[in-house]
Amino acid sequence: MIGDAVIRNNTIKAVGGSWALSPIAYDRQTIIETDHLNLRWTPIEQDVNNAIFSRPDNLVFAQCGTQIKSLNIYLRDRKKSLKAHGASNGQGVAGAIACGTHGAAYDFGSIHDSVVGLHIIVNKDKSYYIQKKSRQVINETFATNINSTIINDDDLFNAAVVSMGCFGFVHGVMIEVEDWFMLKNYSLTSHKIRPKN
Length: 197
Prior knowledge:
Layout: H1 2-8, E1 12-15, E2 30-33, E3 40-41, E4 59-63, H2 68-77, E5 80-81, H3 93-99, E6 115-121, E7 127-131, H4 140-145, E8 149-152, H5 154-161, E9 169-176, E10 178-179
Parallel strand pairs: 1-2, 7-8
Antiparallel strand pairs: 3-4, 4-9, 5-10, 6-7, 6-9
């Protein structure tokens, strides 16, 4: 599809959960519907730089169209959780990361702060796995298995996380997760809250 678009000099836009209120995701030339790109898996120990990251089970690679809901179910079944989460769960993971829409914690940012790697396709013959040089979680084996060249660069990684597809087609993301947790929500009416003396 990418090769055909390049030959025709067409633009390509990816459409995920279609949550945008504007027509920004739509294009008259080439549209990639990402909802079928929903595979997710935990890398094996041989794919991880164990000296830097000793818990491969705390990683998950998700294709761009993986809905937050299905990612949560996948993680729950493995007794894992996303580090931060918003109120809605129908958005694709790549859209949630690019838009920074999914929640935050008091000591942690939104879902994009849990990204440790990005798989980006730039044309029909080239794709890259980009991660920070200062935190090389994944090794060459993983990049080779997904037919990518690995790039370890902090600045490029940070730019790619917020690029919203400007670097190429964000095919998948590697996310750091943590052990399963549940939140309890309590609401108090204002008359029950008394200021401390």
